[in-house]
Design the sequence.
């Protein structure tokens, strides 16, 4: 949230480039920060490094129970807010110009929606740890599976896909890999491949 707040002065220019551009920047910065974090961890004592590495990887066995109730409230409120914005998100699905003609304050609404997304992302990160590609993968899978512009249905499908993906991933980690790897590794591998698939698909258009 703090990092996103620092981006506010440049947010107007970023929004003009579109959400895809912002997503790519965020993913690149996330990779950069993770690489820098890994480099600093290597300089640490090996025992301390192992302890920290265990805490940094997302895990559903080590959910932060201290903030679970607060996280549930934040996620619930942010989710309801996005559902309330269903009509505006549907208009955004057309294009920016059409949304403006229909009376939507595009930049103002985009900022509000981005803040809701940032709150959801930061809350889930604090709860279980960082998970790259997961939200990106679920949202794009929802768009691919249902040819529907109404976001209330897209949200429902994305949530269902997320639940099924996490459940399947956790089951594979526990039953097949015997907890030798983390569920985030499976998600990031599949998510990375899916990301390159979408890039290749866009290049062919």
Sequence:
């Amino acid at each position: 949230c703090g990092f996103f707040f620092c981006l506010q002065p440049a947010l107007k220019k970023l929004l003009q480039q579109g959400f895809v551009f912002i997503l790519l920047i965020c993913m690149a910065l996330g990779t950069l920060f993770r690489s820098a974090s890994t480099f600093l961890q290597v300089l640490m004592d090996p025992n301390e490094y192992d302890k920290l590495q265990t805490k940094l990887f997302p895990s559903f066995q080590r959910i932060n129970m201290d903030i679970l109730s607060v996280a549930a409230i934040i996620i619930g409120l942010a989710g309801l807010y996005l559902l309330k914005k269903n009509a505006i998100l549907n208009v955004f699905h057309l294009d920016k110009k059409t949304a403006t003609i229909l009376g939507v304050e595009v930049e103002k609404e985009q900022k509000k929606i981005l803040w809701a997304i940032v709150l959801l992302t930061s809350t889930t990160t604090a709860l279980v740890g960082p998970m790259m590609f997961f939200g990106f993968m679920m949202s794009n899978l929802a768009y691919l599976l249902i040819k529907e512009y109404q976001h209330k249905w897209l949200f429902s499908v994305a949530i269902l896909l997320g639940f099924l993906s996490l459940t399947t991933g956790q089951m594979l980690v526990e039953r097949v890999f015997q907890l030798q790897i983390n569920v985030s590794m499976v998600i990031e591998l599949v998510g990375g491949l899916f990301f390159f698939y979408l890039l290749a698909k866009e290049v062919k258009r």
Q: What stands out?
A: The radius of gyration is 18 Å. The chain has a mean pLDDT of 77.
